[in-house]
Amino acid sequence: MGSLEVLDGGLLTTIQDGGRFGYRQYGVPVSGAMDDYAYRLANQLVGNASDLPVLEMTLNGGRYRFNSDAVIAITGADMLPKINGEDISLNTSLEIKSGDIISFDYCQTGCRSYLAIRGQLDIKEVLGSCSTYLTGKFGGFEGRALKEGDVLSWTESEGSSIPERVPEDRFPYYSSKVELRILEGPEWSWLSQHQKEQFLNTEFDVSPDSNRMGIRLKGDSIKPIDHQMVSGPVIPGTIQLPESGRPIIIMKDGQAVGGYPRIAKIADADLWRAGQLWSGVQLTFRKINREEANKLSAFQKNLLYNQRVID
Q: Which residues is 117 bridged to in the sheet?
């Protein structure tokens, strides 16, 4: 049994896995890793099943002391990680010795990093998932973010071999200018041609009010839609247009039902990119059709599951 002590939990560090499915009809969101691509890469690097729980760190990851030897990997946003004050690399497996301290600074690109530890974290499942749902105060570590003094333990796994690194051409890439591909939403047809063009041609700023529930955008307001909206189901990636005319992207901890027009849906293959959006990023949208979206999803799944993404 391995363990680590939290010396500083950073700004927001939670336990997340692949998500909680089958309970949205009861108002329980999917939760899970915001950047699913970086999350699964982290697990693959340490030889874990791709859906095991990891630490998801937001903006600043904090500091942790390992009380036992371990194999770890860090992916996602670059928070300038260090072991005992020495710089370490992202997207590679690393051997940790008992007593080592790993620390993180503020992110340089993106906003979320993932720390995977080889083995199974000792976290109880709630409704089939280890993911933390902060609003509901359940899942993960006591339903909350990690803080100083917390101790995490895990059951070590042997594993026949340890992957070394992700090829550079498959590193997750984050930028201050992001284009997300979208599909038409159920209420897309409610927009006038002018409103559609405005939405697709606007460079939105990401609001600092964004969180795991939703990403709020700033920019030229889109004229409110002149239709009565009855509440309807929403899922991660749904883009709603409230009366303010500034879109909101529903994310992993978002509600199951919304009352604003659902003008678009982020293509599944780009949802991980949305999970790395934060204040200071400029965002545009490009509309694609379902056939293109399916091809993108198939390519990404093939990249993660059917090809050797690790050298």
A: 72
